[in-house]
Amino acid sequence: MVEHLHCEQGMRLLLTPNRSLSWAGNLRIWMALFAVSLVISVGMALAGAWVIVPFAGLELLALAAGIYLTSRACQAQEVLIVTAESVTLEKGRRTKQREWRFPRAYTRVQVKLPRHGFTPPKLFISHRGEDVALGSFLNVEDTQILLRILEGKGVMLERQRPASDHGLWY
User: Fold this and answer.
1) Measured in whole angstroms, how far is the alpha carbon of residue 68 from the centre of its chain?
2) What pTM, to 2 d.p., does this model score?
3) Residue 138: phi, psi to the nearest 5?
4) Mean pLDDT for the chain?
5) DSSP string for residues in 38-84
């Protein structure tokens, strides 16, 4: 998702992945599946198939780990600040963990176009041989929105077409 933030000197954008559910929503779904699994495994244990109970527990543990890792990955965010003098990219979860600042005059955004239309282009902020990935979690529509905003603000874009190799997996 691309969101404008207030900035007096230039443009400030907040980039976040699309989140279908909050953490509380994910916990409610896990609890509902836990309840269903508990009813089924207790019923099977009472019927004599007690070996089902540990496997149901392992299944719920694996599901909880998957939900946690996915929710944690969806907490990632990037703040892109473009002023007349510089381009700044901040990355992190909940707080800023990394920051890159480049002079605007010598900085460009590389757009590596995909082979297929359903795949978003890969974006990189490039300055003198240093490339920093930008919005790697954005979908096709959000990437196009970001590119239109950057073009509108005069940021140099360098589009790169994919290599035209006709291999076995075309």
Assistant:
1) 15
2) 0.81
3) -75, 150
4) 92
5) HHHHHHHHHTT-TTHHHHHHHHHHHHHHHHHHHHHHTTEEEEEEE-S
